[in-house]
Amino acid sequence: MAEKPWGGRFDGETDPRVEAFTESISFDHRLAAVDVRGSQAHARMLASVGLLTENERDAIVDQLDVILSEITSGQFAFHVELEDVHMHIESALIERLGDIGRKLHTARSRNDQVSTDLKLYVRDSLDTIDGLLLELQRAFVSRSETDLGVILPAYTHLQRAQPVQAIQYWLAYCEKFARDRGRLADCRQRLNVSPLGAAALAGTSLPIDREQTANDLGFDAPAGNSLDISSDRDFLVEFTSALALVAIHLSGWAEEWILWCSTEFDMISLPDAYTTGSSIMPQKRNPDVLELIRGKSARVIAATNQLMVLLKGLPLAYNRDLQEDKIAVFDAIDTTVACLELAPAIVNTARLNIDSIADRLEDGFLDATALMEYLIRLQVPMRTAHETVGRLVARCESDGLKLADLTLEQFQEIHASIDESIFDVLGTTNAVAILSSQGSGGPDPVSHSLAHWQQTLGLD
Ligand code: ARG
């Protein structure tokens, strides 16, 4: 049985059920690479301040590389009695280097160590997720080029509201994911101070150089207060909250397309590669991937909650409860990455059902607001124009007509100065064409936004 690094003051054996209960190696083994990175920086610092010789430092740094490659290639055996990834790596080092290995943990505790590992791990994951979000934004921009000129109904309350260029939808998602990337960048900046050197909770009397380890590991500075450091998991809450918003955005998009690919909407077709069939109903083609993107968002949202509940009652410094943080964080990362890896492919390959959309584009009075604004341009007060168009819509509805079917004479009954130009705003194509305000769904503003995104995302 492996000897416990903390075994000095214990005579009796640990109950195996306690070992199984307290272990974290089953999930924190994925911190191995960042743990080694942190330990190597720590060893280099110990050598620069004279707490290790250069030879000792080199032996430690090299052996840590060997241990890591064994872990990565699956040749390294884990034992629950060694609790966690930190103790596994340190024990292996001691087994191989003897007294030299026993020096690595000088002026360090697993408390500042695990916090450092988590920050490095979150920083790397955050960069991966940022890259995946960029790819998804690019997919929406690329399909904007394909769907140039297509008009879609836009909905409020899931009722037909006004027409927009299809691209307005795709660029709306670019905006959401840009905000997500901004939140990740904020989180990255705030987390980027080094915990190393807080040791257990009070710092150390040994002459360590916290600036050096901070620099070595790419942190901007050492974190300020040793008591705060090992209890600080704010960065995990911020990170998973940012991921929760990514998941919420993905889920909203998935829901929209799930609706759109139903027979009722018939607006989009998903390719075979991203749909599945039913085991009993031969005709079915189900949007399972989108449904699971929607469903899995629950796990990411829950992770933030799990972390906040975990943290809310903890006094300062390290408490073992914190070990549970990794379960929530890893699941939030894995789930978000899995969804983001599939999303761009779906965005790239789905096809708008142009004919079916166009066939029904004149249903639902999508041009009513355009007509109201025409009246406003004739100096009719907005509320009066709204009421007037409302009455016209009711009349058309009961007569089975579109607004564009009314005659000039009928329009002139509501306002004497209406002329032929009214027909330039009626009908969906006209109603979109006249949308001109900045950020609106009209052709010019949309082309302007598209150019902006092509440039921002390096696609021009
Ligand atoms: N496995 C522990 C965790 O993940 C590492 C820190 C343990 N520290 C301690 N003093 N027992 O939180």
Give the structure's gist in a few sentences.
With 460 residues, the protein is mostly helical.
Structure write-up:
With 460 residues, the protein is mainly α. The chain has 3 domains: 7-106, Fumarase/aspartase (N-terminal domain) (Fumarase C, Chain B, domain 1); 111-151 and 165-208 and 220-359, Fumarase/aspartase (Central domain) (Fumarase C, Chain A, domain 2), CATH 1.20.200; 361-456, Ribonucleotide Reductase Protein R1, domain 1 (Orthogonal Bundle). The chain contains 18 helices and 6 strands. The chain has helices at residues 16-22, 25-28, 32-48, 54-72, 85-97, 110-146, 166-191, 210-216, 226-229, 234-260, 288-311, 325-349, 354-359, 368-377, 382-399, 408-414, 428-433, 443-456; strands at 151-156, 159-165, 193-194, 221-222, 268-269, 351-352. The strands form 3 sheets. A two-stranded antiparallel ribbon has the order 1-2. It has a two-stranded parallel sheet with strand order 3-4. A two-stranded antiparallel ribbon has the order 5-6. The longest helix is centred in the first third of the chain and has 37 residues, at 110-146. Arginine (ARG) binds next to α6.
CATH class of the largest domain: Mainly Alpha
- Overall tally of domains: 3
Number of helices: 18
Average pLDDT confidence is 95
What are the bound molecules? arginine
Taken in chain order, the helices and strands follow as HHHHHHEEHEHEHHEHHEHHHHHH
- CATH homologous superfamily placement of the largest domain: Fumarase/aspartase (Central domain)
* Proper CATH architecture of the largest domain: Up-down Bundle
Helix content: 55-70%
Radius of gyration using CA atoms only:
30 Å
